[in-house]
Write a structure and sequence with these properties.
There is one protein chain. The chain is mostly helical. The protein contains 23 helices and five strands. The chain has three domains: 109 residues, HUPs (Rossmann fold), CATH 3.40.50.620; 168 residues, Serine Threonine Protein Phosphatase 5, Tetratricopeptide repeat (Alpha Horseshoe), CATH 1.25.40; 176 residues, DNA Cyclobutane Dipyrimidine Photolyase, subunit A, domain 3 (Orthogonal Bundle), CATH 1.10.579. Helix content is 50%, strand content 5%. Strand 4, helix 5 and strand 5 form a beta-alpha-beta unit. It binds flavin-adenine dinucleotide (FAD) and iron/sulfur cluster (SF4).
Length: 487
């Protein structure tokens, strides 16, 4: 072994709280620094269950690594690294802020990113050829080819049915241990001392170790993946999980490496234990969307975060900010918001059509909404927010990423879900006491943004059907009046 290599091996590996799986280490001897900082939670409030998950995962990792690991409780990362007094290295952090910090620490080497399949330079080379038109579907096609993903499993044509799957076995429960009990005691104490969290505490539902996450993934592939395609684009009053994997926090904490998960799903498809449609949908999310968003975060100028093409200027109302689902009568929104409050998670369709759509219709500030998603969800992370919330869901980037604003009225929500039957509002009604907030909100959104949206062919029919000035004034006045109230 060369001298230089020995020196590299002697460095401590500082593992961030989203780098906790085995693929963030090179060998079984490496010394590991883990840092727990209460100050970070005080500075940026997050969901109580997210705080629990992060602390539990850090402490479980320290326990797994035993004598090789040093778990430091410090006010700041800088203090912890200075006190270490030896050279250290860190895998490329997942946020611009953390990367900028790492580059200011003397003697801290920054290694290339891990936990993603695609490569930054390769993405940039691809994106540079797109002349500003960046579509996930184009990237996904390119990346599948490049990484030989799903090439021998043809995708079936056509969409899946719009009916939620039934009888899907739930993910196996997590069994809490002494580490979780200690985390809960600490968080209770911190809260009593004034640190603010959002959402409610509950027994831990999400994996905090690689082993727990692997077990969840195996269960998903064996028992839930087959119903996955039917879960896409639907909402269910009775079942908030459907056949989703609920593994996003495991991927984002770095407990699971996506590439083996993608290959395992491929194998399930080839072996016929899961239908090709389900495998394609799952891989499209994990390999297509997840990689695309990660690469866009680094590809775009950081100022993307401030994009505001729709001039959305309203602050988030307090009831939404506090996840006050009990204040909401609109059944779909109350149900999804209660899920976020109680579990820190909702599936893609609920996030897009119920939560983000509500903000888009009312002109909430996109960056504030992005921060709300980051703090309220156990998987909430800055690199997803830019393209997903600011770009796709709030259309603040003028279609740089997506092709149309994801605005939906109550009629659409009624078609994809089963909440409307038991709701006090009428999904098709635009005006009056029973007007569905999503239907009135959709129309007000079109009126407010008519000039900006005029060139969008996919909204042309919606805009053309709503030209009566008297009705426009009535809708705008109604929606202005109820803009900040819980619906
Ligand atoms: C407004 C909004 C905010 C979102 N915020 C986040 C976030 O902070 N963190 C986050 O990880 N995802 C976010 N997503 C994407 C997606 O909703 C979640 O990844 C997914 O719902 C997590 O549930 P799951 O693990 O059951 O996913 P599944 O449906 O089982 O998908 C499997 C995995 O694929 C990946 N994936 C699937 N779809 C997407 C997608 N559209 N974008 C990125 N990854 C995807 C995830 O890692 C996920 O765990 C957001 C989506 C929207 C519309
Ligand atoms: S009527 Fe409107 S508010 Fe009520 S559940 Fe349906 S879409 Fe939601």
């Amino acid at each position: 072994m060369r001298k230089g290599q020995q020196r590299e091996m002697a460095r401590w590996r500082w593992l961030l709280a989203d780098q906790l799986g085995p693929h963030f280490l090179d060998d079984d001897a490496q010394r590991v620094l883990l840092v727990e900082s209460r100050t970070l939670f005080a500075a940026r409030p997050v969901h109580r269950q997210k705080a629990h998950l992060i602390l539990s995962a850090l402490r479980h990792r320290a326990a797994e690594l035993g004598d090789r690991a040093r778990l430091v409780r410090a006010d700041t990362f800088r203090t912890a690294l200075t006190d270490l007094g030896e050279p250290a290295e860190v895998v490329h952090p997942s946020s611009r802020a953390a990367l900028a910090f790492a580059r200011t620490v003397d003697g801290l080497a920054v290694l290339p990113p891990r936990g993603f399949v695609t490569d930054r330079a390769d993405f940039a080379a691809w994106a540079d050829t797109r002349r500003g038109r960046l579509r996930m579907a184009d990237f996904y096609r390119y990346a599948r080819d490049r990484h030989d993903v799903l090439r021998d499993l043809p995708a079936p044509a056509g969409r899946s049915r719009r009916r939620p799957p039934t009888d899907v076995p739930p993910p196996p429960p997590i069994v809490e241990d002494d580490i979780d009990a200690a985390v809960r005691r600490d968080l209770d104490r911190w809260q009593a001392e004034g640190i603010r969290f959002v959402g409610r505490d509950a027994p831990r539902r999400y994996p905090a170790t690689h082993a727990e996450a692997q077990a969840r993934l195996a269960h998903f592939l064996d028992h839930r993946l087959s119903a996955y395609a039917d879960s896409e684009g639907v909402l269910s009053d009775a079942d908030g999980l459907l056949a989703h994997s609920v593994l996003s926090s495991s991927f984002n904490l770095g407990l699971l490496d996506p590439e083996p998960a993608i290959r395992a799903a491929e194998r399930a498809g080839r072996a016929g234990t899961a239908p090709a449609a389900a495998v394609h949908r799952f891989v499209r999310g994990l390999f297509g969307w997840r990689e695309f968003l990660w690469q866009l975060y680094w590809y775009f100028d950081p100022r993307f975060r401030g994009a505001d093409w729709l001039a959305a200027t309203r602050p988030l109302p307090e009831w939404f900010d506090r996840l006050d689902a009990d204040a909401v009568e609109a059944r779909c929104l109350a149900d999804v918001l209660a899920g976020v409050r109680d579990t820190g998670w909702a599936h893609q369709t609920a996030r897009l059509t119920v939560l983000a759509n509500y903000g888009l219709q009312r002109g909430w500030r996109a960056a504030e909404l992005a921060d709300w998603f980051r703090r309220s969800f156990v998987d909430g992370t800055d690199w997803v927010m830019n393209a997903t919330v600011i770009g796709m869901s709030q259309y603040a980037d003028l279609a740089r990423i997506d092709t149309r604003p994801w605005a939906f009225d109550g009629g659409h929500l009624d078609r994809i879900g089963d909440h409307c039957g038991g709701c006090r509002y009428e999904p098709k009604q635009v005006l009056g006491d029973d007007a569905c907030p999503y239907t009135g909100g959709f129309e007000a959104f079109l009126h407010r943004n008519r000039e900006r949206l005029a060139g969008d062919p996919r909204l042309a029919a919606d805009l053309a059907a709503r030209t009566d000035p008297q009705r426009r004034d009535a809708v705008l006045a109604q929606e202005e009046k109820r803009a900040d109230e819980a619906p």
